[in-house]
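Chaperone protein HtpG, pasting as requested.
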Amino acid sequence: MQKGAIRVQTENIFPIIKKFLYSDHEIFIRELVSNAVDASQKLKTLASIGEFKGELGALEITVKLDKENKTLTISDRGIGMTAEEVDKYINQVAFSGAEEFLNKYKGQTDGANIIGHFGLGFYSSFMVSNQVEIFTKSHKDAPAARWECDGSPEYQLEETSKEDRGTDIVLHINEESEEFLDEHRIQSILEKFCKFLPVPVKFGDKQLNNTNPAWTKKPADLTTEDYQNFYKELYPFSEPPLFWIHLNVDYPFNLTGILYFPKINKSFEIQKDKISLYSNQVFVTDEVKDIVPEFLMLLHGVIDSPDIPLNVSRSYLQGDPNVKKISTYITKKVGDKLDEIFRNDRKGFEEKWESIGLFAKYGMMTDDKFREKGNKFLIMEDITEPGKFFTLEEYKQEATALQTNKDNKLVVLYATNAVQQDSYIQAAKGKGYKIVKMDTLVDAAFINNMEPLWDSIQFIRVDADIADNLIDKEEKTESVLTQDQEAKLKELFGQIPQEHVKVELKGLSADSQPVIVTRPEFMRRMKDMAAVGGSGMSWYANMPDEINMTVNANHPIYQQILNESDDDRRQKQVRNLADLALLSQNLLTGADLTAFVNRSVELMGGEKRN
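Structure tokens follow.
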């Protein structure tokens, strides 16, 4: 029997490992099972090149729980180790940098990175164990070996008997970690980290993993059903995806994976953190914001890259040159895919636009190269003719003649609520204008971002002004009222006690509404963005609404009101017309709304006057 001390220069190494890794102590299972996978894969490689001539048999990894003896055992039938190799790989290599380790990481808590940097994966087992045993038999013709350590630098290594090739790691679980003696806890951890490992992993005689997941296969070998079934495997309770992108590149970095576009019915149903990062089929994390561009965090699926180390930390990812390349590549692939679908199946593209549009608009706001592609496949739905879509170029062709303003800019008219803004939509439609739907959470920000980039285009919401003023062409319509009548009408509207309201008389067409209330485009847009959490814009949300009240002097009702002999009744009629216009924009509330209802009842019940 060999006894000795692990080659460390301080006896504090194990307490430090325990302390550093405490916040993520379930990671020990991933590390030990990953080591078992490596041992199995190495044996396959040796067999393929003729260096191992024995029978491979069933290369599988088993995880066994013994509650009575408080042990957890991870076993493989891989390459195994000789006693000399145990001494080399367990006792020496892992702690060759112990002094550097202590100096560099003292006071830090990023345990995952420490493991990866120093090859300490096996030693993560001491986070949960008061004793660890290794029973191992090499694929070579050599006696089996047993190694034992109690979490101090002291170990013992001796010859033992073991029938089968491979390695058993036996963890004697300590009192603080008895959660790892619960079979449901172990199974959930195995399903999290080992779901797609390339070697079968069994727990309780049940294989938990799919060793050949869809992303490891060639796209040409997969059917639509294969992709959809894999999505179900990832997200059992989700609706089928709209479509997917298979990533498969090996230069200048290695990356595989499948990204799915989920169906999104409403903006608030968006779910992030649905992309999982793997390294050689070993689960790493589902926080991929440093690898996947932010706008694509709405996608679901898997990406796998051995060029990103198994134990990642945010600081490492931010400084890694491959991460930026991978992010750029994924963005390009998504842009190419959307462009391809738009060109080859426009009808299908339009049917999926409710979901696709969120990705497309978000991407166009945040990525210049994606925007260049997006300019071609961005589509806008006609609010008056559901199912009819315009590209930006098509909208220009249909609307330029009527919707070009005095600054030679094309005015894109849009609506956010077809029901609430119906009267404005109908008025604009009556002039031959094209109105598109912009009703998602990202549209306010999208419009603000695109206007400076599309310098020949201006967006105006259809209720931002009266229809005659939406396209500023400096054209004027004359009022049919005399100067005295206009003065009297201004006086009547001037008596309305309404803050932040600007009243203006205009000569509009006789069939336009008698009073039209609008909110200036800029301020309303800023308030809308502030309402959905626009950064640094919260003060806009608290500002009072600015209201423009346009009185249509050509509406015949004013001839009737101006001929009214009862001044009090005349004032009430004018006030009601103003309140109706405010009500149409949801700007009449509280006591003002109550007064309007009471006044309306009074006017309807009064004697009809000539």
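Note for the archive: Confidence is low (pLDDT under 50) at residues 95-99, 107-119.
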